[in-house]
Amino acid sequence: MSGSKIILYMHAGSGNHGCEAIVNSLCHMLKEKPLVITNSEKEDRKYSLVPSSGDALCELAEERQFSGHKIAHVLYYIWRKITKDRESFIRYRYQAVFDKPLRKKGGSLKYPLAISIGGDNYCYDTMINDLMLANKAFHDRGTKTALLGCSIEPSLLERKEEKGDAGGHFAGKLIEDLNRYDLIIARESITYEALLEIAPREKLRLIPDPAFTLRRKELPLPDGFEEGNTVGINISPMIQENEPEPGITMSNYKALLEYIMKETDMQIALIPHVVWARNDDRKPLEELYRAFQDTGRVVKIADATCEELKGYIARCRMFIGARTHATIAAYSSMVPTLAIGYSVKAKGIARDLFGSYENYVIPVQCLRTKEDLIGAFEWLRDYEQEIRKDLQDRMPAYVEKALQAGKEAEKLWEE
After folding, report:
1. How many CB atoms sit inside 10 A of residue 338's CB?
2. How far from each other are the two terminal CA atoms of the chain, in whole angstroms?
3. What's the predicted TM-score (pTM) here?
């Protein structure tokens, strides 16, 4: 496959360090540097993918945006209305690929494989239409596609209502789209079992999230972070948006911090994992910090690369996390972890690791009183040593299995 490249697309940018962790880990698995189509080249150059110093893990091509280009948006809209060419918007966004010849001299494809790396993108209604269009656009050009490390709510595969441009019977359109992929790698068994009902087994794989293989970098610990006796805390605006009662999430976190300080000698580290202006973990974490900064028991961790954040998480004694890839960093570092989830991904990952997600995941939708999180933490502390031993026993094989994602991608690339 000399001269050809694997494309990684649907990458939202490294300001979401979970997105960064997926690309970072996958790049380390692949023999050749892939081309990453990114929503924010600036973010990717700020962190670990293409750092200002050191080796780049990939090549970058930034998506074109219609925002700020109103004339182009109008022209493409008119073109689409006249020709019914629904994929034209995707070709505009991915101009770096589609405006260049896709075949080399001799007829072989320059980009034989495009991998959608969005993880849980199919869990968000606002993204499904673009996922479908991109999948078809690549296939129309002869490029194979793979969906890697995905989580999909099983209920989506049965939903009937129309959703935006997808049109028609929603589940039927979605199933048609998923079957267009040449390979689908589910990162947890709940998604895999649902996919078995609608797609051929031969194109499905169950392989842990690539980020289980993420390397870690250990920066000096800030004052107040006691290695091996600090509880890592992560909260996100996403879970607050899914809470059953306004304010119940924050009241649970505040009650938990009070409990930890009263009933244990542990320190507390507030660790962000997404720092986008529109969805910034540091905002709720700052509220927590202001409430407890005078105690001397709470420390803020600054924004950093995904590898550096994993370095902090790995030195915690326990971890309470809302962001999936923050919990993956903890699990893969053998840190007993409680996931505050809102979707299938947290449940599926915990079930695959421990045989059940009960006690390991508390859905934010189940928060009813401000003491709910305290009860979940008490269980985690009671079984701390057993959980750590389970992770130590299982994680080496789990990480080894996660490496199969790169091998499966390269196998499809080479076919």
Report:
1. 25
2. 9
3. 0.93
Interatomic CA distance for residues 16 and 273, integer angstroms: 7
Residues paired with residue 75 on neighbouring β-strands, in sequence order: none
| Torsional sign, CA 366, 372, 373, 379 | negative
Cα–Cα dist 373/243, whole Å: 13
Decide if 240 contacts 250 (C-beta within 8 A).
yes
Decide: helix, strand or coil at residue 53.
coil
CA distance 128 to 131: 5
Distances, alpha carbon 140 to alpha carbons 114, 137, 165, in Å? 12, 5, 19
Per-residue pLDDT tens digits for 73-82? 455 455 555 6
Give the phi and the psi of residue 402 in degrees, each rounded to 5. Answer: -60, -30
Which DSSP string do the residues of 196-237 spell out, in sequence order?
HTTS-GGGEEE---GGGG-----PPPPTT--TTSEEEE---H
- Give me the residues paired with residue 319 across strands: 232, 337
**How far is 196 from 51, CA to CA, in rounded Å?**
40
**Letter string b/e over residues 78-114, b meaning 16 or more CB atoms within 10 A of that residue's CB:** eeeeeeeeebbbbbbbbebbbeeeeeeeeeebbbbbb
* pLDDT per position as a tens digit, 153-210: 998 887 655 544 444 467 888 999 999 999 999 999 999 999 999 999 999 999 999 9
Backbone angles phi, psi at 103, to 5 degrees: -115, 140
Specify burial of residue 278 (Cβ count, 10 A radius: 0-12, 13-18, 19+): exposed
Query: CA angle 374-380-383, nearest 5°?
Result: 140
Question: Does residue 66 contact residue 73 with C-beta atoms inside 8 Å?
Answer: yes
Half-sphere exposure of 213 (CA within 13 A, CB side): 24
Q: How far is CA 365 from CA 168, 234, 245, 274, in A?
A: 30, 17, 9, 21
Q: Which residues are within 8 A (CB) of 237 and not within 5 positions of it... i.e. 6 or more apart? A: 279, 280, 281, 283, 284
